[in-house]
Amino acid sequence: MRKDAVSAETIKALSRRHFLKAGAAAGVAVKVSFLAPPARAQLAETGLSAGSPWAAPGRPRYRLDAVAKVTGAKTFSRDYRARDLAGWPDGQAHAFLVAATRADRRFTGLDLSRLPAALRPDRIVRHEDLVADGVSVPHADFFGDWFLVPQGETPRLLGQPVAILIYADFPRFAAAKRALRFADDVVRYGAETGPRPPAHYGASRWVRIEGDAPDAPDRFSPFEQSPIFAGFSGDEPAWPKAGDDGPFARGMAAAAAIAAEIDGAGADALVMRRTYRSQSTDASAMEADNGNVWYDPATGTLRLMMATQSPYDVAEAAAALVSKSRFPLREVDLKVGYTVGYGTKDHHIFPFLCVVAALYAGGRPVRLANDRFEQFQNGLKRHAFRMDNVLLVDRASGRFRAMTGRFACDGGGRPNYSVAVSFVGATAAQSIYYLPKSDFQAIALASRAVEAGSTRGFGTLQTMSATEMMVDEAAALLDIDAIELRLRNVLRSGQRNSQGAVPAGALRNAEILTKAAAHPLWRDRAARKAGYEAAHPGRRYGVGFAQVHKDYGTGAEAAVASLELDPRGRLSLRHVAHEMGPGVTTSQAVMVAEILGRVPAETAFGVVRWPEMPLETSDQPYTTPQDEEDRRAQNPRWTPRFTSPMSATNSAYYLGHATRTAARFLVDHAVWPAARALWARGGGGGALASYHVVARDELRLVDGQVLGGGLPPLSLEEVAAEAHRLGLPVGVTLHTFNRWQWAEAEFDLPGTGRTRLPIDALSVRYGAGAPPERRALMATAGWHFVPRAAVTYPPTQRNNVGTTYYSPMATLAEVAVDTASGDVTILSHHSILECGRQIVPELVSGQVQGGLAMGIGHALKEVLPLYEDGPGDGTWNWNRYELPRARDVAPWNQTVEILPPLSETDPPKGIAEVVMIAVVPALANAVAHAIGHRFHELPIRPERIREALA
Questions:
Q1: Which of 328, 622, 293, 285 is nearest to 456 (CA)?
Q2: 3-class SS of residue 45
Q3: From CA 151, how far away is CA 158, in angstroms rounded?
Q4: Per residue in 604-649, pLDDT tens?
Q5: How many helical (H) and strand (E) elements, i.e. helices and strands, does the chain have?
Q6: Could you say which of 108, 531, 592, 920 would form a disulfide bridge with 190 (CB–CB 3.0 to 4.6 Å)?
């Protein structure tokens, strides 16, 4: 799930700078740590000993966290109580939220008369308490203006908390919570006001008209000029006028030209106008939102045990929240366990409600943890979208001439990432096609619905599904095979996307389309339909296809990684990445083994304290003007961003880039020169001189051996010992930054000279044999922080790119529709994925299987009403919300083909989001093939099929 921003005019981007300023001003120390017990359990398993998870270096038998999880070890934040945390008291308080289930009347107070005296809370926290104590929402333009609804005000959204009830013991807490559940007389309401949501969140527009030749500059594009941004007049965007000056006006003139061409199209063109709707859904992550927080007023320490994908931001925002209040604060200590959230634990207000509860818990640790009813009521949702699309197609050639779309998403009652979700959806709407002209509007609307956020797919699931359904229908209207129509219009390497940028690397969509066209499901679909329907009266058979490609990354990805080689040849890896489900702890270790021939003996993930990397950041990577960034970059300690949360499918490529670069650095600067020194021993220059002049690219590290050029094999142990004896750089810590392109910097390394690397900061540690003057350089926590001699950051103009990194996936779905019940049975499905070079194929397979199941749910089952009868009323659970079961996803009849990499040097691609998308329109297209009716609204549930067949 990604958090894009493009320019200062667009979005008030979430920034840590304000949080850091507040904390620093109060002298607050902020630290984040990741749970030691499961980490140690994993580390014990990583050694090459009996019971090792490694079949061979780089070949895991199972995930590094597998044993801890399947044996019930505490790995998730939800598993912990105060007594499980070192230094915390044994006593555990508990809290729950009381929420408003109406958002059209004033809140006038609480009525707790249902509770006997023995079950009355030990503390009730209200909005008025927070105001009196100076406790306010951090970054209110993102999280909203109220933690709790003020008395006399109308709730901004359904399910908004009005109070926090705190209990010093669990039995009373549990009994009180049961007594109040579903009661409609606890929250009192006054005069009817109608809904009072916040102002609408934002609108942007992405207009492109190609140039006169394929290589000519675009006449207009967001990348070359600018996206267009607007406020609102009522519920409609107030777009700039075409006649005004500036890039916005030129963009509007380009949009008007596209509209005129569509309106004036003749009989030689097909003009399709369709409206599509995608529903609100719940990500249904198995770990509901939870936090355990202890505020110790005696020491001014705030300790948090939190489930979050963005721990740095939570810690810093918590510091800002408390340090602005009457509560003294000297330190924030956040611990994070494993979690899974599909984006829903990335920048949510829930962790801060946990902090608020702790401030009023009388110095006791207090746990605030959603049960599943509460998670439906206040957990982040996937945005509902309305998409008004127009496609202009040349009838003779089948080539797309233009496409427009108006994509309006319902963000609910808090801003969150709604603006970003809207424009990411808009920039993805072209799907896998080249469009000579396009005009995509992204509109983020506020409403009284439960807050929507950065849920898996981040707007692209909605818009690309609509495009794929539309292209399939266009093929039928033109009487062209649907895959053939796609091939005629597929975006190819070197062509520009709808923002005017050339995607990175090789685009292999045409290759996937060709494979899909030859697959028996597609090739024989007419014969299979006739045979199946003859054998199964009352059932209709259909095959559908769809193909998409999904961007990965945010346009501001940053990471820190460290590798050290000890004199015995043992490797130690430290990394900012932390585990949230995709197997990052396993894959990063595999990356090290691929380059150094040995897995790390010690690993530490989720590392926050990097004393050897003393960097400074304004953390405004999207909105800092170019001239200011150029000025700041002269400071060798400055970087646009220190690190990224776990989101946006960023682990394999972006976080892995730091790991791979660190491993290559050790090979280049420690292993290679040490191996050459060993091979050169002996008379006349040793084996090196007498046999072969080996080049660096001939070096091979395999199974703990250093090989190359026919020279005698060396063990990594003896090479490591020699590297330490020579005082070579045997440890490296580096920082990376990517803005749709890697930052690069030059460093002057003692004994080596100037080196250019795809990083922007570097620290090294020398072996014991380094001369005194070199050892004296290791003055930064035992490391030599090497000031960069020069740096090249990707220009801030690249913020307008939207994206350049894509992973493609196609799915063929075979279904049967029962004409009596309307039930859709998936008979089989086959997917084709291109993910670069796989790191751990089993992890890729797991991502594909899980993503397909989630997409099947979105296409056929899952739906949440947005307003009064939706989850905000507190009565929703999985008894009402239908998730797909094993029987629904054809577990024994699903296959996937992974395209082999073009070369062994291909990088891995991020795939966690794309794997759920293509199956959604593929199923919609399959149902259309089966029954001859096209649905434009998801999900396609049995009652809607029965209605269409009636």
A1: 285
A2: helix
A3: 16
A4: 888 878 999 999 998 899 999 999 999 999 999 999 999 888 888 9
A5: 26, 37
A6: 108
